[in-house]
Amino acid sequence: MAFRRSEAVEQAEAVEQVRPQAGLASRYTATRALSVALAAPLSDADATAQSMPDASPAKWHLAHTTWFFETFVLRDHAPGYCVHDPRWAHLFNSYYEAEGPRHPRPHRGLLTRPSLSEIVEWRSFVDYALTVALPAFDAPVRALVELGIQHEQQHQELLLTDILNLFAANPLLPPIWDAARASAPAPSPQPLRWFAGREGLVEIGRDQSDQGFGFDCEGPRHAALLTPHLLAERLVTNAEWQDFIADGGYVRPQLWLSDGWAWVQANAIDAPLYWRRAEPRGPWRSFALDGLHSLRDGDPVTHISYYEADAFARWAGARLPTEAEWESAGANHDPAAGNQLDAAGAVRPLAAEGDGALRQMFGDAWEWTASAYHPYPGFRPAAGAVGEYNGKFMSGQMVLKGGSCATPRGHVRASYRNFFYPHQRWQFTGVRLARDR
Fold this sequence. Notes:
The chain is of the alpha+beta class. The protein is built from eleven helices and twelve strands. Strand 6 (284-288) and strand 7 (291-294) form a beta hairpin. The model is unreliable at 1-21 (pLDDT under 50).
């Protein structure tokens, strides 16, 4: 182990006490501690392996987020700072062309050196230097620190989902943490209810004058026209997805987009990622961060692609909401509420609770929308290397909204735009239905 388990537990407990309104230094320290706590159960081998090109080793996430702070904050703005090891920039740069060549993404799992313990030591080196330098930073540099915190929170979710994908590839299906929750059965889902969304011209996106942090892709604020529509009160459940499977959902080409049907055929897709059956007609089980367990019917279905979400919606006589429809509804909900990440442990989406109007708008599962990830009218990426953060990915991807059970609490908001390619499903991705009216 690179660090004592007790230390990681103490760090995780400290993170729970720090909320977004805390000072920049406190939030920096808490964010960095949570990343280390998330990796605490891992051996060096666990943290080095890479399960697929879309995923990265846990060790790489810990290193890349450290490289971000060292490069864009300390190297460029802390007088006298010396880079810990100049060779590591090539290893842990992700996609910043302005920072030079880098190690190929599909080969990150070949980086057996530096070790996990060396990376944890590097994190401590950078954390000390940044904490010392932070009081002297002016507003633009403090904004870079804030960007780095938000960036690391994104990688905390990726770290969890990449660990899950890695351990799911192990025939032993080992749990990473103890059970997330007592094994009491989830309540059976009630029939879906529908609620009318707003109509006419609405404004979405972030304005430059908005309080708090926002990524550049979330703006500018602009008008969008909403036609009469309904939104489902909650996310689609495991029970409803089993009905879709039983009714031939994965073998009926008329339900699928052409690209989606080709993807199903080429990859022999017949269920959400991580669903398992011991025998062809046996009950479904699901692998999660706390191991293999029986499906809980009332919990939201997760780890589905855009293609699957779209096919299910068509099967259900519905459609996916547009980004504008979702954001207009989500703006009326507390983005820090719901089932989101508070501390290291086995996160899992949970059944909708309560009654009334729209539920599960934030947390549990990222919700696929019918909207492509394109720039808003008037969008301009930030200047410099950090401008490569979002804008250059606005091609061929779909927008997701709302965060998941693995999203750090306080990270998302109604205007937040997550994006993935239509076939990707290793994230906690789910679906809320919409209908025209």
